[in-house]
Amino acid sequence: MINEKLATVKKNIPSNVTLVAVSKTKPNELIEEAYKAGQRIFGENKAQELKNKAEVLPKDIQWHFIGHLQRNKVKYIAPHTSLIHSIDSIQLLTEVNKQGLKNNRIIDCLLQFHIATEESKFGLSLEEATELLNSNDFLNLKNIKIVGVMGMASFINNEEQVRNEFIRLKDIFTQLNNNFFKKTETFQTISMGMSGDYQIAIEEGSTMIRVGSAIFGNRN
Ligand SMILES: *Cc1c(COP(=O)(O)O)cnc(C)c1O
């Protein structure tokens, strides 16, 4: 079942697009099924849940943290996560850096942008991100690396609006790349697209999609 759904999603995406299988709320048995089918990157949105799963599931799984992250929870994921998608403040990034240092590692991070019209979605504006990247605090962080951007489009049945939101994120990526990351080759990731809209996201330049229900079924 899961291997068939996984195969269907993979068939629809080009080889340069990374698939994050969003396993939040799902039991380890289902993750193991996807693992047996070859999937190695999984996404979680609760810190404690990521930690619990990472401690018992195979060590070559790459755990991405995709949800809103509270500073006091960073310590749970710092030993385990290979990419945090949801950096939305210098304070959070500073805590990730502190926990990276404690774990003797550099933690890859994406800046999350608010691209949807919905008020409830988290994320930075381009102005806020520019301020963050220009700050002295940022320059002192040696145990984090900003490798790209992430965003969630509005949950609406309006393809044109969703497309425009993805175009906006791609544009933000390009501007940040030109202004801050020109000399590095590590700023590469545009994390956008979920079960309902990943085709549109890929058409607009996504390099990483986060797909849950299309692989694991609906969540309660
Ligand atoms: C839950 C979640 C997803 C996956 O959503 P689906 O619609 O089930 O594919 C992707 N990104 C984020 C940030 C999520 O919280």
Summarize the structure.
The protein has 220 residues and is α/β, with parallel strands linked by helices. It has 10 helices and 8 strands. 41% of the residues lie in helices and 19% in strands.
3D architecture notes:
The protein is of the alpha/beta class. It is built from 10 helices and 8 strands. Strands 7-6-5-4-3-2-1-8 form an 8-stranded parallel β-sheet.
The run of helices and strands is HEHEHEHEHEHHEHEHEH
Q: Are any ligands bound, and if so which?
A: pyridoxal-5'-phosphate
Report the portion of residues in β strands.
15-25%
Helical residue percent?
A: 40-55%
Radius of gyration of CA atoms, rounded to a whole number: 17 Å
Q: Keywords for this structure?
A:
10 helices; binds pyridoxal-5'-phosphate; single chain; alpha/beta; 220 residues; 8-stranded parallel sheet; globular
Secondary-structure blueprint:
Elements: H1 2-11, E1 18-22, H2 28-36, E2 41-44, H3 47-56, E3 62-65, H4 74-77, E4 81-87, H5 90-102, E5 107-113, H6 126-134, H7 136-139, E6 144-151, H8 159-180, E7 189-191, H9 198-203, E8 208-211, H10 213-216
Parallel strand pairs: 1-2, 1-8, 2-3, 3-4, 4-5, 5-6, 6-7
The protein binds pyridoxal-5'-phosphate.
